[in-house]
Amino acid sequence: MKKIIYIIVLALVSISYTACSDSFLDEEAKDETYADNLFVDYNGFLSAKYALLNFPRQERREPIQSAELGVIWKIGTDVGWANTELSWTRGLNQYTTADLTPTMQFLNGDVSDSNKPGIFLILYRCINSANLMISRAEKPGVDWMGGTPEKDEANKNEIIGHAKLIRAWAYRHLIMTFGPVPKSVDEITGENYRDDWERNSVEEIQTLIEDDLLFAEKWLPDNSKDVTRLSKAIAQHYLAELYLWQNKPEEAEKKARLVILNPNYKLITERYGVKKSEAGCPFMDQFYNGNILPSQGNTEALWAFPNSEVDNLLGRYTNSMRRTWVSAYNNLDVPYTPEYGGRGIGRAAITAWVFSIYESKDHRFSEYAIRKKYVTRKGVTITCDMDKSKMTTNNHKWASTRKWDWTFAEESRWGETYSYADQVYLRLADTYLLLAEALWMQGKTSVTDGAAFYINEVRKRSNATPATQSDITLDYILDERARELVTEENRRETLMRTGKLIERTRKYNHIASGERNGGPGMQDYHILLPFPKIVIDANVGKKLDQNDGY
After folding, report:
1. Is the dihedral of CA 62, 80, 121, 213 positive or negative?
2. Domain 2-70+99-257 has what CATH class?
């Protein structure tokens, strides 16, 4: 019964948060009564927080088309391409002017169905939801159920901290994808409806993100094994990244060190968990379902998405990481099995360049991490392709990551569409590489505390040859991020932040078939994606300019 009540509350909160009219930032005033009834005590805000946390989880799901939502930030870069193209992935895969347009479905959603918004509107629905929570938390008369004024204040500010962290997460995606965007920080009601929004500068939005993350850092817990209670380490990680983007490496170093020195987190360097007795490597242990959550021994997970029923409150949610990144090997007369990860459709794939930069002894390139062979129903062994000459669309033999392998235990369900595995969203290894970047930017070369040292902490756990300080350049750091974080990292955003998106995509992403052959088709203006036409058209009170080139 507890689970059923939670699901009903989640559905109602999601509806009340996301109801939109033709204005992309408008919410229907009819939901006001429900909000008034919900936000009266701490339990009501907890229910709203659970609903808000579902927005980041949508990044690994399919709210628009048959690929993870986050693939928009991974293909069309040095590390990712679209093996099985859809119209919108072709635009990013080959940078074709006919497909990468302001009207593409991924940006606009289904214009005939408001329940299927594009990526821009999904992120603003998240922002509207956070704004509503923040506004209502500041109103007098809420029963925060703490028992003392101090505990009441802590409960209130932790709720606001969660809302501001998620708001910062959404704005981060927006400005790294579209550049200047409208700034909205107030609850939207029928009284303050607007259709004259303007695009605020990236610098203004960065300031808002910083303020939100600093508040979250102050009020969120040092650590929590409860995945619905986020840690301040997440805010500190994103602050480090933000300061690097703003060319403030000293500040980035401070925040990254706070995460790394937090005794609740450490890199996974020893075998553990559900497959400890089987052949494998420490790097991959953190990706096996049953090992993902902090409560299951994962000390590297800063932020994990729960999708299995480890707690009656969490419910089950589909995710599409396996479906997106595992090749459609069934087309090779290979049966779906747990060994092969379940059903994949290969919407996206790792570039040949990434495969080429691993040492053969690197655990991240081992058979435990990369699927390199299949055996057909007739017993024939098929060796997967990894050479750039074979980067052709619909290549079902293409090698794929095993980070997202998961399927049901019952053989009759091995071919089912979706995965229900828990997933790591943000890892400590990422923070180590941010710290290395901050130290490199400052020219800090200490053998025991310089950029190479922190890169080698990541490399040595995967049996890779240690780097020397003379090896370290920005490109080397980006190479290491590719080796460590491929299919996890939103690569477009990292390359945009570092000013390397155009250069590295042109250099390393060469599709062997297609109109414009991947990276070489990229134009300078592709540093940003087009502003969605549906948003421009809805803002009738003031003209919203389109991004250059579109």
Report:
1. positive
2. mainly alpha
